[in-house]
Write a structure and sequence with these properties.
InterPro entries: Leu-rich_rpt, LRR-containing, LRR_dom_sf. With 362 residues, the chain is α/β, with parallel strands linked by helices. 43% of the residues lie in helices and 7% in strands. It has a domain of 231 residues: Ribonuclease Inhibitor (Leucine-rich repeat, LRR (right-handed beta-alpha superhelix), Alpha-Beta Horseshoe), CATH 3.80.10. The longest helix has 36 residues.
Length: 362
């Protein structure tokens, strides 16, 4: 009788041996083996784990060597020679070339201050005369023009009449006059300049050597501005024409300041101060120092309140002055007695060509 063979050994399933999960053994599930049929012994699993550990160490060593080689390559790539010769497809953005012409500067300023450019200004910037009248220019409109006008060598006549620039706009104009040496004629009539604008403008005009013609009528100048203008008359030796019509001058101090400074001035040929509030004594104080003036050819005192006292001074003026050619005395309250004194002066004068006395009760 043959001995019975031992029953086949049945390997317990992993799910029937939970103690196997307590071991820190890495179970590798192959893609083609289902988990239920996976049978691994502890020894075999340990062997595979060791093999994988050795393989990982080999890979780590290999990776370390390759990293060292890459570092060496990087060090070679960062050498000064390679940095200098390094080329890239990324191109740097080139800065736009700035236009420093008069038009370019004006457009740049308009862009900076969000101002709509004036096509008329752009068309006129290369001409001899820049005339912008009755356009209601604001101070900011003048401000954006100043940089281009400072370097402009074409414009010699600047006419901003009746724009209501005010003191702020006039301060910008004064800055322009200080730096520009080509403008010879300036018209700022009817711009409501006021005291602060007058101060800034006169401060520049005292040392200016290019302005020949200056029109400032209708700008609310009062007696507080008189000293500033007197300083200009005394120190400036280039202005030949000055118009201060339609302002608010009236007191005796103004007449005295204007008279003394004009008497010393040897360049002003035409002086207009009509339509102010000058009365008899004030006009007399203004005219008396002009007896010795050797340059004045035209004097306009019309539409003031000269009266009898001034008529007597006119007699002396006409006797001694030898340059005056035109004298306007319209609407000055001259009566018949005043006319007698003026006539006696005319009899002694040889240079006066035009005398107007319209609107007087003669």
């Amino acid at each position: 009788m043959e001995p019975l063979s031992p029953p086949p050994t049945i390997t317990p399933s992993l799910f029937h041996r939970p103690e196997l999960l307590d071991n820190q053994t890495r179970l590798i599930l192959s893609a083609h083996v289902k988990p239920k049929r996976l049978i691994r012994s502890t020894t075999r699993s340990a062997g595979i784990s060791k093999a994988r550990t050795d393989s990982s160490s080999i890979l780590t060593t290999s990776f370390t060597q390759e990293s060292d080689e890459d570092d060496d390559d990087d060090d070679e790539d960062l050498s000064p020679e390679n940095i200098i010769n390094y080329d890239t497809d990324i191109e740097e953005d080139e800065e736009p070339i700035k236009d420093y012409t008069c038009k370019g500067l004006y457009l740049d300023q308009c862009h900076r201050h969000s101002v709509i450019p004036s096509s008329f200004f752009l068309r006129s910037i290369d001409k001899k005369t820049l005339t912008i009248r009755y356009c209601g220019l604001k101070p900011i409109n003048i401000k954006v023009m100043i940089p281009s006008l400072k370097i402009n060598t074409n414009i010699t006549k600047l006419d901003f009449r009746d724009n209501g620039l005010g003191s702020h706009g006039t301060i910008y104009i004064a800055e322009l006059i200080r730096d520009n040496e080509y403008i010879t004629e300036l018209n700022l009539a009817d711009n409501d300049i006021g005291l602060q604008g007058c101060k800034a403008l006169c401060e520049v005009l005292r040392s200016n050597r290019t302005i020949r013609i200056l029109n400032l009528d209708g700008n609310r100048f009062n007696d507080n501005c008189a000293q500033f203008f007197a300083d200009v008359f005394s120190e400036n030796d280039t202005i030949k024409y000055i118009n201060l019509n339609k302002n608010l001058f009236e007191n005796d101090k103004t007449g005295r300041l204007f008279g003394q400074s004009l008497g010393e001035n040897q360049t002003i040929e035409e002086f207009y101060i009509a339509w102010n509030h000058l009365r008899s004594k004030t006009c007399a104080l203004l005219l008396k120092p002009l007896m010795l003036n050797a340059r004045l050819t035209i004097l306009d005192l019309s539409w003031n309140g000269a009266g009898l006292h001034t008529a007597k001074i006119i007699l002396e003026l006409l006797k001694k002055n030898s340059t005056l050619e035109k004298l306007r005395l319209d609407n000055n309250q001259f009566n018949t007695e005043c006319a007698v004194y003026i006539g006696q002066g005319l009899a002694k004068n040889e240079t006066l060509k035009i005398l107007t006395l319209n609107g007087n009760p003669l």
